[in-house]
Amino acid sequence: MKDERELFRKRLIELAERSDRSMVPCFTPFMGLMEQDIFRCTEKEFSHVPYTLFGGTEGCERVMARFGGEANCSYMLPFPIVCLKGTPLSAKFADDLTHRDILGAVMNLGIDRNTTGDIVIRDNCFYLFCTEGVAPHIEENLIRAKHTDLRIERVDKPPQGELYRLERQQINSASERVDGITAQFLKAGRSEVASIIEQRRLFINGRVCENGGKTLKSGDVVSVRGSGRFIFRETVKTTKKGRLMIEIDRFC
After folding, report:
1. Rg over CA atoms, the chain
2. pLDDT tens, 224-236?
3. Which of 74, 79, 63, 11 is closest to 42 using CA atoms?
4. CA–CA dist 228, 6 (Å, integer)
5. Which of 59, 100, 179, 186 has its CA 20 to 30 A from that of 142?
6. 37 φ, ψ (degrees, to nearest 5)
7. What is the spatial distance between Cα 180 and Cα 2, in angstroms, rounded to a whole number?
8. Longest dimension (CA), the chain
9. What pLDDT, in 10s, does the model give residues 108-167?
């Protein structure tokens, strides 16, 4: 694990330096939460090179980094990201497909995970972000997920505001500590959240959270790998028993 982190850290620095030397934008693969943690931990080593993070549309959890900006590049390149839309050939006989169903079908095509971004299920269809390089292969070969035959097509612009919806919720918590709020968010016990932290599955703004006592600030994005994410908004009031009513926006 440490060797993989070090290799990825060196790769990030190499891409940043290449962009700075050649004055040409350079892109990382899609980064999951663990890769984003390495990115954040390495930021100081390429702080002289401008960068942008993007996953295909606003709200994506898996993102690419583009090193280079107007300040150091002679020209700019758009992110090499394609959005594919999948719909059942027959809605009447389609399974209720899940994220795992779609991801499994894509991985069965022999595609590396770092070439694909978020997969979003909406009603009877799904949206998949991927690199330009693997998009034709997916378009041609992703013909079935579970027992459902699929139609795949490119989407020029993902539907704005539809892929990532935020649902405002109020949580009753003893404090603004991330472990307590996450426990309420997951409807889990503190011991379960402690285990999640120990397994390095809890992230705040793309960084691994190792301290369950960390106090959240407005706008912090909390992700529990494999279990969802939310944005901490604010404490709206204190109850008579001294507990806090906290507002969050759940990604749904």
Report:
1. 20
2. 998 999 999 999 9
3. 11
4. 28
5. 59
6. -65, -45
7. 30
8. 62
9. 999 999 999 999 998 889 999 999 999 999 999 999 999 999 999 999 888 777 788 899
